[in-house]
Every structure is written in structure tokens, then in C-alpha cells.
Design a protein that fits this description.
heterodimer; A: 134 residues; mainly alpha; 4 helices; B: 141 residues; 76% helix; elongated
Chain lengths: 134, 141
Amino acid sequence: MPRLSTWFVRASLLYLALGFSLGALMLANKAWQFSPSIWKLLPVHSEVLLLGWFVQLAVGVAYWILPRISGTNPRGNPRLVWLAFWLINLGIALAIFEAFTPLGGLLLAGRLIQLAGVLAFVIGSWVRVKSFGS
Amino acid sequence: MPPLTRWFIKTSFVYLILSLFVGVTLGAQLIWNFPPASINLTPTYFHLLAEGWITMLIIGVVFWMFPKFSLQQPRRSLRLGWASYILLNLGLLMRLISEPAITSMNNTFPLWGILLTLAALLQWLGGMAFVFNTWARVKEK
């Protein structure tokens, strides 16, 4: 597995752990209702699991196993995909903070940065989606 | 493919079918109010899809295909792998029953609260077992 994939996959495992922890807390709160403010975690739970876990796992594994191309960069442009890693994670972090600060606009900023990150990944990997040997 | 992977993937297929059945039920609920709208099946639908289907499919494939941990233990701990399977499934099944039950009964029957808490704990432990067992397999060659 290339180093960039290990970063994506480890980040996705950390987000899985975080997302499951928040989910377990909310589920237990459904039973005992310790605090209504725990429900603020619901958008964080879905952001962390959808973008943090599913998307990053898929991107990390794709970077590892998609067909390689000839030339100096067999896995496409690595700078572009590293950029995707930092943008996606910054975007998730900003979107999470929206739930804990009175500042507006963090979700919007985070989602825009996530979009830029995903675009960087797709552009960097586009040419790797091809038939064997071509 | 190792037996644990086959269990995870086949189980994930069953959850996929179940989730679409719940999806159909949600559609019917809108028209006939049956089952009554007080039984909230939306979280059930999401978790059947996201946890039962996608996450379990991923876990099965990861256990099978990720870089080997060592020559003696290529998939690291088999025991932890099976523990994650059993915990995630017991937890998910318990929540599938107790979550709609607790919302419709307004938490008057304490058994549902206990079951739901246990479901939360088991799912969490199952997730952690998977993360722990997989972490050391995420490595450069």
C-alpha cells in the first residue's frame, strides 16, 4: 500500500472510531436522556462517518489498487492526491466545528473545501480508470 | 476468501435486502399510516444501509485483502475479527428492535432502554475491535 493510501485509510479508521463513539453516546441518550444537547452531535456523526469513514476509505483504497499508468507517476499526480487528503480532512474538521461554535458559515466553508479535495482526487486519478494494458 | 469474509459479505447482502424492505415500509407508512407514524423507522433504515450493508461489506473485504500483518498471523487476530462480527451483529440486531420500540412507547418499558444501551455498547465494541485489528495492517510494503 503506498504511503498516501496509509494516511487516507488510517484517517478513515480514526473517523470510524469517532463516529461510532458519537453514535453509541446518542443511542444510549435515547434510552436515558441524560442531556438534550447530545443531539447536537447528530450532524457530526453523519459527517464523520460519510465523509471521514466511507469517502476516505474508498479514496485511499482506490489510490492503492486502481491500474497504474506508464511514466514517472504510475499512480497519477501524487501532489494532487496529497492535496486532496489535506483538503478533505480540513473540510471535515471545519464542518464538525460548525456544531460547537456560534460562528456561521463553517459548514459552508468546510463543504466547499471538501468539494475541492474530491475534485483534486478525481482529476488526479481519472486516467487510471482504464482497461488492462491500455 | 477466508470464512470470516464470507460471513461478513453474505450478512451484508441480507442487511441490504432488509434495508430496502424497511424502505418500502417507510413508503407505505406515508400513505396508509401503517405501521403508525409513532414508530420511527428512519434511523433503522439508515443504519441497516450504512452499518449493516456498506460497513460490513467493507470490513469483510478489508479483512481479506489488506496487507498481511505477519507470516504467522497474516490477518492479525482471528479472534478479534470474529469478535467484531459477533458484536456488530448482536448490537445492530438489538437496536433494530429496541430503537423503534422505545420511540413508539415513550420509554415506559425499561427493558427497551436496557436493550438499547446494550446495543450501543456492543456496536461500539465491535467497531473498536475492527479498528484495532486493522490498524497494524495499514502499512507500506
